[in-house]
Fold:
Amino acid sequence: SIQNFLVFILKKYGIYGIMNSTKRRRTTVVYKTKLCLGTSEQFAITIEEQIKLFKESGFEGFFTMWDKHLKKYRKLADELELIFQSVHAPFENAAKMWGNDGEAKHAVEELVCCVKDCAEVNVPILVVHPYIGFEEKANPTYDGVENFRIVVEEAKRCNVKIAFENVEGEEYLRILMDTFKIYENVGFCWD
Structure:
């Protein structure tokens, strides 16, 4: 299994991670890097069981999707001495962030709630999709940037970093990264 392979690599080489450089096809060993895994509800075991397996396998942290169990995951992280690295915000409403109607307002409120929940359980990073969907793409809008500004400002107030993820809609990511480049609490998530 992949888990056994990762444990084998960690033990054999005494390292935390391996990255491949696609341009030169060489392998670079990354020392002293904290390695975290993402949980998923698609597996046949609970999130809690996954987190315990991560610890047993030698990983130092994890991240989850935003849900009502963040306090339980925080408690487990503390008990297992794991890093609760980040929370991934829901992305179903990401395209709605670019509007100026009730749906956009709801999408902003949802992300602000995610930020507050991260702050409450001391998770430093919220991963956010700038956009979702390949069909019916419109251009980035001023309203969308201002909607994201509300979220970024709340995150700054709560001491949470927003990591915009590289997903479809590169033009949306570009405008957000350009607009918020002066904010120390805004960064990029490469998936």
Notes: Helices lie at 2-13, 47-56, 70-80, 102-120, 142-158, 170-179. The first strand starts at residue 17 and ends at 21. The CA atoms of residues 40 and 47 lie 7 Å apart.
